[in-house]
Write a structure and sequence with these properties.
This protein is mainly alpha-helical and 228 residues long. Helix content is 72%, strand content 0%.
Amino acid sequence: SEMCIRDSPFLFDVRPDLLGVPFLVAGVLRAVERGGFDRRALLWLLGGALAREELALVAASALLFAPRAAAPSGAETATQASATLSWRARALAAAAFAFYFAFYYFVVRRLLGGTDASAAAHLAGASGGTLALGAAKLELVVLIAATAGGLPWLGLRWAGAALPGIALLLVSRWNPGEQLSFHYGLFAAPGLLAAAIAGLPRLQRARPRVRKIVLLGAVVVSLGGFLR
């Protein structure tokens, strides 16, 4: 209502995820291409975090789980590797993203009247759920992984960026149907997409039978879940 919008910006259902997620995807895929995060990839992550505070957790996880740059095989790759951030720089950036999320979520939201969406409310709603709700949430996680192409295990380190999104799905007080319709499921997408792309060359080198099993399995799980 007009009164709710005037009293608190958090009582109006706005989802800037659709703006923030593409920024994170751009940053993570740039890191996959270059073998590590550089300053420009970091700026893409920052754009996503500024669009929605919870996406800062995805950025932090991506920085921590990203594998080290591959050994350079030529002048171009050597230049790319030298431009990537060191582990210490990535850890500091991840800590900054985590601090930003905590400050925004527990301080700024409270000052602006967003206490109805506190972490305690989410956890209370999740713990009060039924066994069927927990099973539905787990099923949703499996579907997200399968829909990503069935390849995260091939680029497992990059899939670490999907952990915050999956955790938010599991602890949220909302039911899986609402989650799948809009927001927290999107948070797992950048990490799963990066893992799939990073692992694709490994799948291409596998035996034809292995490739068929992996791809067919992804199709069967995804189609079966959505039909159900």
